[in-house]
Amino acid sequence: MAIKFDRVASIVFLAVGVLFIIGSRHLASSSYGSVVGPDIFPLVLGILLVLLSIRLFYETFMSTGSSGPKEKLEWKPFLIIFVATLLYILTLETIGYVITTFIFLLVCFQAMERSKLITSIIISAAFSGIVYFLFVDVLKGTLPGWPIWF
Predict the structure, then answer these.
(1) Do 47 and 93 reside in the same domain of the chain?
(2) Of 3, 52, 67, 116, whose CA is between 20 and 30 Å from 124?
(3) Please, are residues 60 and 3 in contact by the beta-carbon 8 Å criterion?
(4) Max Cα separation, the chain?
(5) Of 56, 48, 120, 107, whose CA–CA distance to 78 is shortest?
(6) pTM of the prediction?
(7) Domain count within the chain
(8) Sign of the CA dihedral 140, 146, 149, 150?
(9) Hey, CA dihedral for 93, 97, 102, 105, is it positive or negative?
(10) pLDDT band (50, 70, 90) for residue 61
(11) CA distances, 126 to each of 92, 96, 105, 120 (Å)
């Protein structure tokens, strides 16, 4: 763990988390036909990011120094996940939440660990289906549904 990098990263993440919280307070608290408003998700993410950055900052003070040799940066998985994220953002509305999220998670899981294809498919399908069901049916929220041509 690079102590200096982690300290700077924790401060940056703390600032981003606070900005998420402040920004979510400027969003409407409810939307038409939805019990869950658009402000909930960024608010929860902001709070989570603030708490995790505080923990990281605390851990940098408790550690004694960097451990072991420098690790080689893995650019290929990073670029694959970055491009997959951009494509996910661009295609979410047109293809729909369930299909886009399934493909995005499958690509990300395979970029991180290529040997477990069946496990990746099962987890991706279960996660996207369960989250869609919970958010749309249980919480009465709205997510992009299935594509029109489907």
Answers:
(1) no
(2) 52
(3) yes
(4) 58
(5) 107
(6) 0.61
(7) 2
(8) negative
(9) positive
(10) confident
(11) 18, 16, 11, 10
